[in-house]
Design a protein that fits this description.
Order of helices and strands: EHEEEEHEEE
Structural class: alpha+beta
Distance between the termini: 23 Å
Strand content: over 45%
Oligomer: single chain
Mean pLDDT: 90
Length: 127
């Protein structure tokens, strides 16, 4: 088995920002709708357009600010515990999680795995 056996689709791309107001203005000007906003060590804003979901979040002035600086991609899963078991078998480091966040209606559980290029792949289950 593999962790991807529990993946049901793309969930979101995470983009850190040092200027949330400019980020909101940019994505809404492109036609995205501000879908959800919360706090988690700074402002977190989700934008939606059709099936595309983008998470932007304040990173205390630490957003990289150059091309190729997207922080993570998130994949929706239907069983985070099983996905976690399978990810552990790969030997790639789980750098965060399993964690719970009170996002959306009932919260989410997720894990983050670091790939060989320091990319982060998040597996996320909406509860």
């Amino acid at each position: 088995m593999a962790a991807t056996n529990y993946v049901t689709g793309y969930q979101h791309v995470g983009i850190p920002t040092n200027d949330m107001e400019a980020t909101i203005a940019f994505y809404t000007a492109l036609g995205f709708t501000l879908k959800y906003e919360t706090e988690n060590n700074g402002r977190v804003v989700f934008f939606e357009h059709g099936d595309i979901l983008i998470e932007t979040y304040e990173k205390g002035g630490q957003a990289v600010g150059f091309r190729g600086a997207i922080d993570h991609i998130a994949l929706a899963v239907n069983d985070i515990e099983k996905a976690y078991e399978e990810v552990q078998k790969t030997g790639y480091p789980v750098v965060e999680g399993p964690c719970f966040l009170p996002f959306w209606e009932n919260g989410v559980k997720y894990i983050c795995v670091q790939g060989p290029n320091t990319e982060i792949v998040e597996f996320l289950q909406k509860l």
